[in-house]
Amino acid sequence: MSVLREALDHQPETKAFWSELAEGRFKLRHCRACERAHWYPRAICPHCASPETEWRPASGQGTIYSYSIARTTAEPFVIAYVTLAEGPTMMTNIVGSDFAEIAIGKPVEIAFGHQVEDGITLPVFRVV
Amino acid sequence: MSINGQAYIAGAYEHPLRRAPDKSLAQLHAEVALGALADAGLSKDDVDGYFCGGDVPGTGPFSMVDYLNLKVRHADSTNIGGASYILHVNHAAQAITAGKCDVALVTLAGRPRSEGVPKGGLKRADSPVQPDYAWETPFGMTILNVYAMCAMRHMHEFGTTSEQLAWVKVAASHHAQHNPNAMLRDLVTVDDVLNSTLVADPLHKLDCCIVSDGGGAVIVTRPEIARQLKRPLVKIRGAGEAVKHTAGGAIDLTYSAGRFSGAAAFAEAGLTPADVKYASVYDSFTITVIVQLEDLGFCAKGEGGRFVADGNLIAGVGRLPVNTDGGGLCNNHPFNRGGITKIIEAVRQLRGEAHPAVQVANCDIALAHGTGGMLGTRHGGATLIMERE
Ligand SMILES: [Zn+2]
């Protein structure tokens, strides 16, 4: 079992995120009490501490808040923080884009079907 | 209850080795402990409080207290990464103020160089039980690239340049040339940094700290004991600590926990940044120094790049001498943690025991500040302000 699979198994509260994403649906955790979305997803709202949180479909749209091109690996890759249209900023990768296209403020959208180890799909983004 | 004036740093010792393949981790802790005790003029049997971070072998203080055969009535193994030891001095001063111990020992040691632990490219040894693990580690997050994202955002918001980042390394090399124990003693120029390999945009290889074996220790004690010892008196004036994190997704990479730990330390000390003659500021990467100098109030937010440029951190040249031992960028970075060396060089400066080429004249107030963990996700900040009495 991969370490990532082990990590997911430790977090029953976010199980639905991964199964939905694998089927092409990107969902965010929202709070019914304060109506705010948060990241990373939690059963308990980090803004107001309410346990009344739920999954809601997300637009999959965002902009690059910051990024770096990691060059110490065999294949350089882009790690980024993307600020989602719904508000929260999340860590991710920017895939399928020329490095020259990557810039802070660039609009990005979720890219589904990005499978990694153990058949797990990651929420990554591409430049629009 | 304030710790201002309630405790003194009576002993400080930095292990001379930067590579220690023939010494165990426990042995390194013991050697720095005994070094600091000898520096203070105390013996191991005087120690009644022990403070350690996540670098000790075993669970919390158990194994090292056993190895050294100490008899302690107070122990604290709070782990906030590389900033732990600065926090420990604060906690030791609190314990002394509360009457819980009289002579506190703080140690850090490690042998990452001998054990072949790679530097910042390393994936974090985080646990899959951590709630944040699955949201960061799978994206290839490393210490290096997450600090690089902080630098990228700082450049974007404030116009900070790679040349300005490079000046932090240049200053460290100017200091390290005078330190016979420093791992890197060659002077480097801004161009050397810019021409070194780009490892994670915008950071170059020479923007990154070294990996070294070794360690250090300090002794904190109450005023009555400190005054009996034949050492210059280094009084603790104030300390602060804070944790900064991702705030439910409200991420702001432009500042660190130092904004809060620094303010708390200055308030307790009754001092301002203008009073500080020397500062030890954690330097895992060049950007780390720039962000923390802003957060500590040495310049306005966004002005850090301009503040560090043109040799302004070089002793005898600039407006604020920083890391006159060569810092983690050139001198020493045991266990990939910087906290203890930051305290030790500040103590040397206050005692007038720094290398003459880097000794700050009339150094009466010094600050040591550390960041432990990840600047770009969650980390601890600890600030300590000391005065030569
Ligand atoms: Zn809420």
Write out the strand line-up for the largest beta sheet of chain B, numbering strands in chain order.
Answer: 3-2-4-7-1-8-11-10-9
Order of helices and strands of chain A: HHEEEEEEEE
Radius of gyration of chain A, CA atoms, in whole angstroms: 15 Å
The average pLDDT value of chain B, as a whole number, equals 96
Largest sheet of chain A: 5 strands, antiparallel
Individual helix count of chain B: 12
How many strands, which pairing sense, and closed or not: the largest β-sheet of chain B? 9 strands, mixed
Helix content of chain B: 25-40%
Please provide the ordered H/E string of secondary-structure elements of chain B.
Answer: EHEHEHEHHHEEEHEHEHHHHEE
* Number of extended strands of chain A: 8
Q: What structural category do the secondary elements of chain A indicate?
A: mainly beta
**N/C terminus separation of chain A:** 35 Å
Distance between the termini of chain B: 21 Å
Low-confidence stretches of chain A: none
- The 3D shape of chain A can be described as globular
Give the oligomeric state: heterodimer
How much helix is in the residues of chain A? Answer: 10-25%
Low-confidence stretches of chain B: none
* Fraction of residues in β-strands of chain B: 15-25%
Most residues in contact, chain pair and counts: A-B, 43 and 41 residues
Rg of chain B, nearest Å: 19 Å
Task: Describe this structure as you would to a colleague.
The complex is a heterodimer of chains A (128) and B (389). Chain A is mostly beta strands and 128 residues long. Helix content of chain A is 12%, strand content 35%. Chain A contains two helices and eight strands; from the N terminus they run ααββββββββ. Chain A has helices at residues 3-9, 15-22; strands spanning 27-31, 37-38, 53-57, 61-70, 77-84, 89-94, 107-111, 124-127. In chain A, strands 6-5-4-7-8 form a five-stranded antiparallel sheet, with no helix packed on it. Chain A has a three-stranded antiparallel sheet with strand order 2-1-3, with helices on one face. In chain A, strand 4 (61-70) and strand 5 form a beta hairpin. Chain A is globular, with a radius of gyration of 15 Å. The N and C termini of chain A lie far apart (35 Å). The model of chain A has no long low-confidence stretch (mean pLDDT 95). By secondary structure, chain B is an alpha/beta fold. A nine-stranded mixed sheet of chain B has the order 3-2-4-7-1-8-11-10-9, sandwiched between helices. A two-stranded antiparallel ribbon of chain B has the order 5-6. Chain B is globular. The relative contact order of chain B is 0.20. Chains A and B meet through helix 1, strand 2, strand 4, strand 5 and strand 6 of A and helix 4 and strand 5 of B. The complex binds zinc ion (ZN).
